[in-house]
């Protein structure tokens, strides 16, 4: 990484340490799910988002999202945890969920940002555990010494962006194929750091195990105590770990996962609210509606209408742009 150097210039970083209390956590059912229209993958250019914020994306974190940022032109200052690095194109950054990160881009930046649901990445890498472990930490890579991999990565991401705008029965298959090729190309440029060959910190490890259990059992509505028992710790300890690592209580983690699934079903199926409630373990549709409204500020039907409306408006905008 010869073209990276440490810098210190960010209001959320003091004395080399990130001020975690000031770091916002963006979750899928709020900001991100609207942008992704409840889909499992979203692709956009770096310019599309960064120019709206004067090319500065303040330090933040995503709860259930994995990101790939590929920069083909320009420069960026990356804030990753306590590290601040300067990247010059070509470069790629992979960012797992929960990790604090932010960017200051040059105005001439060009590239692509891919945002993927964490569970989809995990499923894709199930047969490649070494790669799955590789992408569990933030990975900034200068690509100047990797021309072949850079060419394959750029081609895969261009194809991914094109496929993301094309509806059809093979869409998901194409998206996963292009994403797999992109991840494979990135993996060839990365070598695990020596300190990562050691066991992860106990707190992070326990929280990762908890989130894995949530993914497997959120529909079963386990009480938090049951998760704690499975992890071999107390409920109080589990809540403390979640607040330290995620900035959320254990119950909030479970509830947000329920909302994510509910919104996915609202957006992509014609199931009635009662049926959706049953799909995610609610016996009483009225109670589910109250739960959903408490968590999101909207009723399930209002949320469905808004997501459908956003999708229709997006399609009309693309049509108008095509005519222009």
From TrEMBL:
Keyword Ribosomal protein listed: no
Alphabetized PROSITE patterns for the sequence: HTH_ARAC_FAMILY_2 (PS01124)
One MF annotation (Gene Ontology) recorded for this entry: DNA-binding transcription factor activity
Keywords of the record: DNA-binding, Transcription, Transcription regulation
Pfam families: AraC_binding (PF02311), HTH_18 (PF12833)
InterPro entries noted in UniProt: AraC-bd, AraC_XylS_family_regulators, Cupin_HpaA-like_N, Homeodomain-like_sf, HTH_AraC, RmlC-like_jellyroll, RmlC_Cupin_sf
Span of domain HTH araC/xylS-type: 208-306
Name of the protein described by the UniProt record: Bacillibactin transport regulator
Organism: Hartmannibacter diazotrophicus
């Amino acid at each position: 990484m010869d073209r990276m150097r440490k810098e210190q210039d960010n209001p959320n970083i003091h004395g080399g340490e990130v001020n975690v209390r000031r770091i916002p956590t963006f979750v899928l059912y709020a900001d991100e799910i609207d942008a992704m229209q409840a889909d499992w993958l979203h692709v956009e250019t770096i310019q599309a988002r960064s120019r709206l914020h004067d090319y500065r994306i303040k330090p933040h974190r995503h709860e259930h999202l994995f990101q790939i940022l590929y920069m083909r032109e320009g420069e960026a200052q990356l804030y990753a945890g306590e590290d601040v690095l300067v990247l010059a194109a070509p470069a790629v950054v992979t960012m797992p969920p929960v990790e604090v990160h932010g960017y200051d881009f040059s105005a001439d930046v060009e590239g692509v940002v891919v945002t993927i649901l964490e569970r989809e990445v995990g499923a894709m890498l199930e047969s490649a555990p070494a790669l799955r472990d590789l992408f569990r930490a933030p990975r900034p890579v200068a690509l100047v010494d990797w021309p072949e991999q850079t060419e394959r990565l750029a081609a895969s991401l261009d194809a991914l962006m094109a496929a993301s705008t094309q509806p059809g029965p093979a869409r998901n298959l194409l998206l996963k194929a292009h994403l797999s090729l992109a991840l494979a190309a990135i993996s060839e440029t990365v070598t695990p750091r020596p300190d990562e060959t050691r066991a992860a910190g106990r707190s992070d490890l326990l929280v990762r195990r908890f989130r894995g259990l949530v993914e497997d059992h959120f529909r079963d509505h386990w009480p938090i105590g049951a998760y704690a028992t499975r992890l071999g710790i107390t409920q109080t300890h589990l809540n403390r770990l979640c607040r330290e690592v995620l900035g959320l209580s254990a119950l909030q983690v479970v509830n947000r996962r329920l909302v994510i699934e509910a919104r996915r079903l609202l957006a992509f199926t014609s199931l009635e609210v009662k049926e959706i409630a049953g799909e995610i373990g609610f016996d009483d549709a009225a109670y589910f509606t109250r739960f959903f409204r408490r968590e999101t500020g909207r009723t399930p039907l209002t949320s469905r209408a808004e997501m459908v409306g956003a999708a229709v408006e997006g399609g009309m905008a693309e049509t108008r742009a095509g005519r222009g």
